[in-house]
Design goal:
Number of strands: 14
GO molecular function: hexosyltransferase activity
Distance between the termini: 55 Å
Number of helices: 9
Strand content: 15-25%
Number of domains: 2
CATH topology of the largest domain: Rossmann fold
Organism: Portibacter lacus
Strand order of the largest sheet: 3-2-1-4-5-6-7
CATH architecture of the largest domain: 3-Layer(aba) Sandwich
Shape: globular
Keywords: Transferase
InterPro entries: Glyco_trans_28_C (IPR007235)
Low-confidence stretches: none
Mean pLDDT: 91
Largest sheet: 7 strands, parallel
Protein name: Glycosyl transferase
CATH superfamily of the largest domain: Glycogen Phosphorylase B
């Protein structure tokens, strides 16, 4: 059976959009009709990957980052989140009525569901982690309340042995069915280059202001190192260079894979989608968790003992001891 699917993606850096690429491609290969909906750089990336698909711009959630902890930011602005979700539901209702969608798949956009469509939510984070047990419990309850509005939850992980997401999506239940769909990545194996063009490639993503703070910390470090270094900024810019550092904007998967194939060392946040990509590539990386993002800090610690990744702190970032 061919479905008319509206695929909605959260604009929170590029992770949700990048992991959606193989899912969207798989649905297209099965013969389904797809339209995409998002905002910001996530929508820019999806339009680059799927220029022939109909696309819609949704209203941004517009969460302001007053605190380091994302969970605290969300809880402190839950009124804004719920207002955004209510507005999003109205946008989705209009699109369903106008275009006749019979299924909605939403990667972490909580208002993208409709009573007349099978509505699926994609997330790797059912349990919101925080060092404070009260904040963790409150955040998780709110998250589960929003997830249970859908008909089904897809987790991009494997069900056995806590998988890649660990406590975030294992040993916890929802009122709706949970389906583990396996890890999702745009990439296949990318071996180490014999003659690398760049000593490092830094792949930036995530919300401001931490994205820019990470870029500034990297620039200060890379200027002290020999060789050429590449920074993929994760936003729409014209390419330019400054000394031994080359800056490029958003890249679709084939272009980004080529740049990674020309680079000796990968530097990245420890976001869930990035870790899925590195597993698919078979490449180790230097992971720098976003300060205050308990999820990234947890993932870095969770994966480091069973991988060759190196974990560094942004606050005391010094690449001289790990890049030779």
């Amino acid at each position: 059976m061919t479905n008319n699917i509206l695929y909605c993606v959260l604009n929170w850096g590029l992770g949700h959009a990048s992991r959606s690429v193989p899912i969207i491609q798989g649905l297209l290969d099965q013969g389904h009709h797809l339209s995409i909906a998002s905002d910001g750089v996530a929508l820019d990336l999806l339009r680059k990957e799927f220029p022939s698909l109909r696309s819609f711009e949704l209203t941004s959630y517009d969460i302001v980052y007053k605190y380091e902890s994302i969970v605290v930011n969300i809880l402190s602005q839950c009124h804004k989140l719920f207002n955004a979700v209510a507005g999003e539901k109205q946008e989705i209702a209009r699109l369903v009525e106008e275009y006749g969608f019979d299924q909605i798949i939403s990667d972490n956009r909580f208002g993208c569901y409709h009573d007349q469509c099978k509505s699926v939510i994609i997330t790797h984070q059912i349990r919101l982690l925080h060092m404070n047990s009260f904040i963790q419990a409150s955040g998780t309850r709110m998250n589960m309340y929003l997830l249970n509005k859908f008909d089904e939850c897809w987790v991009p992980d494997f069900e056995n042995e806590k998988g890649l997401s660990g406590r975030m999506s294992h040993e916890i239940d929802l009122k709706i069915p949970i389906k583990f769909i396996g890890t999702q990545s745009r990439f296949s194996s990318i071996p180490l280059p014999t003659h690398p063009k760049f000593e490092t490639i830094s792949i930036l993503s995530g919300p401001e202001p931490q994205r820019s703070k990470f870029e500034d910390a990297l620039v200060k470090n890379l200027q002290r190192l020999s060789g050429k270094h590449l920074i993929v900024t994760g936003k729409q810019i014209d390419d330019y260079s400054d000394g031994n550092i080359f800056f490029v904007g958003l890249r679709e998967v084939k272009e980004l894979a080529s740049l990674i194939a020309e680079s000796k060392v990968i530097i990245s946040r420890s976001g869930y989608s990035s870790l899925m990509d590195f597993e698919a590539m078979g490449r180790k990386s230097i992971l720098v968790p976003t300060p205050g993002q308990t999820e990234q800090e947890y993932l870095a610690k969770w994966i480091a003992p069973t991988s060759k990744h190196i974990v560094l702190s942004q606050d005391n970032l010094d690449l001289r001891h790990v890049i030779h």
